[in-house]
Write a structure and sequence with these properties.
This protein is an alpha/beta fold and 358 residues long. It is 44% helix and 16% strand. It has 2 domains: 201 residues, Periplasmic binding protein-like II (D-Maltodextrin-Binding Protein, domain 2, 3-Layer(aba) Sandwich), CATH 3.40.190.10; 109 residues, D-Maltodextrin-Binding Protein, domain 2 (3-Layer(aba) Sandwich). A 5-stranded mixed β-sheet has the order 2-1-3-11-4, with helices on both faces. The chain has a 5-stranded mixed β-sheet with strand order 8-7-9-6-10, sandwiched between helices.
């Protein structure tokens, strides 16, 4: 049976308020936003939210930077690049809630498997035998954990990510077809695009983010700072709705409900079992590999939704270590201040206040 969850509080209707435009990219970790819409968590809080589907993170970045979106599901590091005006005009944004921990994987092509590559060590041996040819890998943004995870996996195998391979950026929905066409040899992406390649026989999962960097912050809800301040009640209600949806998505029944929701809406051009692979598990990694029973992605457990300073520091260190983001001391302070769980603390507190006055 699909899981249901009653909203933590019924907010008074806010008639006459403007629509909140919230963007997302078709990935399994966008589930909290789609669940909040489907289960009525936005509506019960008096919110008028319009979810807008985007192809990739470049589109999300541009639309946030130019005020065409009020908030968006996005990699945590993207917030820092928007604040600093990297590849777009700078804009004050904030992240007060984390949508999930972990949830990415590195998938390599079937061609590499057939050449004897079954892990990072065997990939390194193949590189030596095929030199000077360099394999190509795709990530979904230069400002995301995917780059960090891919580089960490390559480095652990003795492969220099700057010298021995080529890395390109592609929108998540396009990585599979590029690998199938032989344009890339592997990729690091979120679900269900790893599972789609595995179930199609095009690839196999070499590593998960849970194995490489357990419980790392992944997607956050980036919001326009000016809007969050000017429409603070709506913003607090938005955070409350999203946290309720994350809680819903964490349970076993909730995950099954999310799979049904994605499948019924045809959000992804794949079968139901492909969607379920990374959400309900155990994670099937490909022929000859043992299914992984560990939780692939957390939506609410392990205090997943708290935008803590430690998580902000992790993101900044990951991006800084990859030389993808150059920040001075003042910019780093601003980034740390903009990534904070103050709204996560305020929203539940206001929920209790409203309950007492009912």
């Amino acid at each position: 049976m699909p899981a249901t969850l009653q909203p933590s509080v019924k907010f008074e209707s806010r008639t006459g308020i403007g629509t909140l435009r919230v963007g997302y990219v078709p990935l399994s970790d966008a589930a909290p936003l789609l669940v909040a819409e489907e289960q009525g968590f936005f509506r019960s809080r008096g919110l008028d939210v319009r979810l807008e589907r985007e192809l990739g993170w470049g589109s999300i970045r541009e639309k946030l930077a130019y005020g065409e979106l009020d908030a968006a599901h996005a990699p945590g590091g993207l917030m820092f690049s928007i604040m600093c005006g990297t590849h777009a005009r700078p804009r004050a944004v904030r992240a007060d809630v984390v949508l999930n921990l972990q949830g990415n994987a590195i998938t390599l092509s079937r061609r590499l498997w057939q050449k004897g590559v079954h892990d990072g060590a065997s990939l390194r041996l193949l590189l030596k035998s095929e030199a000077p040819r360099k394999p190509s890998f795709a990530v979904v943004s230069p400002f995301s954990s995917h780059v960090f995870l891919l580089r960490k996996w390559l480095t652990k195998a003795g492969i220099d990510p700057d010298r021995d391979v080529r890395v390109t950026v592609l929108p998540p929905p396009l990585v599979g077809e590029h690998m199938r066409a032989g344009l890339i040899d592997g990729f690091c992406v979120g679900e269900p695009w790893n599972s789609a390649a595995v179930f199609a026989g095009d690839g196999w999962i070499a590593a998960t983010s849970a194995e490489l960097e357990a419980r790392h912050p992944e997607k956050v809800l980036i919001a326009d700072d000016a809007l969050a301040r000017a429409r603070s009640e709506e913003y607090e209600a938005l955070i409350d709705a999203v946290v309720a949806a994350c809680r819903f998505c964490e349970s076993k029944a909730g995950r099954e409900s999310v799979v049904d929701l994605f499948h019924s809406r045809s959000l992804f051009p794949v079968q139901r079992d492909v969607i379920a692979n990374g959400l309900t598990g155990p994670l099937f990694k490909g022929d000859g590999l043992k299914p992984d029973p560990a939780t692939f992605m957390y939506f609410h457990a392990n205090e997943a939704n708290r935008a803590t300073r430690d998580r902000a520091v992790w993101l900044l260190d990951a991006l800084g270590g990859m030389a993808n983001l150059h920040l001075d001391a003042a910019q780093k302070r601003s980034c740390l201040e903009a990534f904070h769980d103050r709204m996560f603390e305020v929203a539940p507190a206001k929920t209790e206040t409203r309950k007492k006055h009912k």
